Amino acid sequence: MITVMGFFFAQPYYDYLQHERKYSVHTCMAYRKDLEEFYEFTQKEFDETNVALISSEMVRTWVSFLINQKMEPVSVRRKLSSVRSFFRFLIKEKKISGNPVSNLPQLKLPKKLPSVIPVENLNDLLEVKFENLEYRDMLDYLCIAILYGTGFRRAELISIQDEDVDLENRLIKVLGKRNKERIVPITEELAGQIKVFREMKQRSDIHSAYLLTNEKGKKISISYIYGTVKKALTLQKINGKRSPHVLRHTYATRLLQNGAGLLSVKELLGHSSLASTQVYTHVNIEDLKKIYKKNHPKQ
Hints:
Layout lengths: L9 H11 L4 H22 L9 H13 L4 H20 L26 H8 L8 H16 L3 H5 L6 E2 L4 E5 L5 E5 L2 H16 L18 H14 L8 H14 L4 H8 L4 H22 L4
Antiparallel strand pairs: 1-2, 2-3
């Protein structure tokens, strides 16, 4: 029997997440961190390292501790989900007979509408003479242009390979969460900019299987994308969040505002369920409320 970190049968569980559940490396790392924190808490507070003796009360105490630490409800909920998944795995492997998390209710989350970048700011951000840019500026611009033009996640963006981009048909193939592949169309303008960038790479003798690379041919990192987007949105004086995910939110919202169907947007975003996409309809409803309030004669 493999035991790691006291009561944790860790490595078999992480192998299960990665190979059977097809979770990304980043998701597996998040699960590992959550479980380590849970283990440390139960060991410190209850002096308990036997997985079979972990009770619902211990888990509930841990959740209360996280809440008292002023942790965001969405983060607490994710951590609880990690622990719940772990115990399900132990039951599946016949290590324990009951799940101490199964009867705990899910934390209610406050409804937050996704942040969306105003059209005028995006126009200012993307209106540059792309052909006149230096290599690094081209790279930074394309990070933003592709994120906004496709709704890709950061991990999806850095994984795009040259062979995934079909400029003739203006399509990009991407591998999303749980290794789910999808094909997303791009505009003629974005296709032309990618073509110019490829030519710049050739002239600069930069060789890589990946589309977006630094001057040494190494693919860019998630932190690089985050820094690039945050800097650009800060220069535009965008209020609120300035993360790459805001560009994904904006992409989805603009599609719906311009008449795209919810199911089509779901497929473009790579969502596994329609519920994840429906949040963008609330943004449109809020816009309608503002228009009504501003223009209705009785307001």
